[in-house]
Design brief:
Helix content: 25-40%
Strand order of the largest sheet: 1-2-3
Order of helices and strands: EHEHEH
Oligomer: single chain
Number of helices: 3
Radius of gyration: 15 Å
Structural class: alpha/beta
Number of strands: 3
Strand content: 15-25%
Amino acid sequence: VIPFPELEGKTVILVDDGIATGATMLVGIRSMRKKQVSRIVVATPVAAKDIWQSIILSVDEAICLHVAEYFLGISSFYSDFSEVDDETVKTLLLSSDNLLK
């Protein structure tokens, strides 16, 4: 188990594979505010237009490659939307130059 890092005063980048309803991302943003981070950046390749405005107003910086007027589901924007298991994510994070080392 990787311990949760101390985040107070740090910049946090929240990344999602796509933002449909925004519920998960908004909870993440609120959670980071409670951790007293200094700056929150949200990054996603695609988001529904109606919720994207709420996300923008909730963070310090928001990056989205495609804000979709008509949003049927995140998977419709991917040619391969297969699941990535937790072990693969941990391996990739621990093998990269990041804060988890």
